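agent> step 3/5: call structure_predict on target 'Major facilitator superfamily (MFS) profile domain-containing protein' (Elysia chlorotica).
agent> reason: downstream docking stage needs a structural representation; sequence fetched in step 2, passing through unchanged.
tool.input:
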Amino acid sequence: NHPINGSRYLESCPSGWVYEHDILTNNAVNQLDFVCDRSDLKTHAAMMLYLGSLLGATVLGIISDRYGRRVCLMLSVTILLPCGIGLPWVQHFETLAVLQFLCGAASTGMFASSFVMGLELVDPKARKVPGLVTQMFFSVGEFLLAASTYGLGDWRWVSLIITVPTATFFSYFWCVPESLRWLMVHKKYDQVSKVLTRMAAHNGVDPPTSDDGDTERDLEKLLESYQADGEFSVSVTKKDSFLDLFKSCVLAGRTLTICLNWAVVNLIFYGFTLNAGNLKAGSKYVNFSIGAAVEIPAHLTTLALVDKIGRKRVHCGLLLLAAIMCAGSVGVALGCDEGHQWIVAVLAMVGKYCAAGLMGTSFLWMTELFPTSVRSTGLGVGSSCARIGALISPYIVHYSLDISDPKLGHATPFIVFGLASLLAFVFDLCLPETYGRDAPETVEEAKHFGREPESEVLRVQEEGRHHYGSMG
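tool.output (status=ok):
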């Protein structure tokens, strides 16, 4: 690499390359020579991971809604395990790109199916627990990744360490029941009866029985009574499809806004994560570790607030704060000398804090806005849009280094992240609050969701505050 006027001029090195090793003695860059005129391949490889996530989220989301959450989970693990194990042994970029694509698709399907399964297995009042506590394990995973990298120093062993444990998820096929909500929506009453009997045995109580021996008919009557009471409204005449969300202007607008939100949140989350290596203050390893550390208090704060002030206020507040942090970073990067660049690092970590909290509230709030009948598909499509943002983020970080003015290049990622946060903030203000309300079960019910009078909304939220206050 030869710098010319602050930019990078790239040419091949015919005599080969000698690499400087810091912690990783062997990685994809020196194994496949992603340097000089091949340096863009490193960014393309990262893009393939997110591209796989984009397609996998949609396709596997449809499979999850049609064939069940557990089927999708098992299929995803079956794809991820061999691809992840084979990934660090490849010798060509094309093979690496294919395996990255498959790993991205499978990992997204695995997370989305297990997340929806957990969300649907709990009482609506406890949805925040699987919705937000799950996000904390991202931080744990980042710490384990950093520790593995530091301790092993070889990306092959690191890849094996983070891939092989996924084999334990095969045990879920026997240990974890299918979502009762999914079974009820698809009127699989025989399986509902088996799950309830298994749950009763596990809890040491008598299983549900029927006076006339027709348990399935009793479950159908129970479902109809819940539907009449508005407690569990499930269509018994037709199956909803994701396209039904676009047959209503209200639902179409909400769906597109949700997709925009997913793209922006993932853009800034992965953008802040990847840009940690370009911060002028501190090493990339320290910055990565600090960025992982701030995620835990972000999720704890979100967990404490979503049932006190609502999902919408927390989410929009974090978007606005992220935009402010980006604006501050731009100002310092452009207007201050090298001695003050630590301020950019601090503001960037606050921005990562906001992005981590937004990941949690997005999974909770946006998932609750979709009806049960298409929730997994909706989450999959939303995750696909999220991958568009994630897909763009490495290019923003990578090509900002090519800008001739180093200060402007340092500020460019924050300009993009800040403007995107403001855009999502404006559109998300139009989405309804889900706090204190049962999630819609069908597309028809979703059409009327959020149209309650303001007095009714305030009453429900006040009841929620009293409920969680008494629990504390």
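agent> step 4/5: record observation. The domain at 21-178+249-428 is CATH 1.20.1250.20 (Growth Hormone; Chain: A;).
agent> proceeding.
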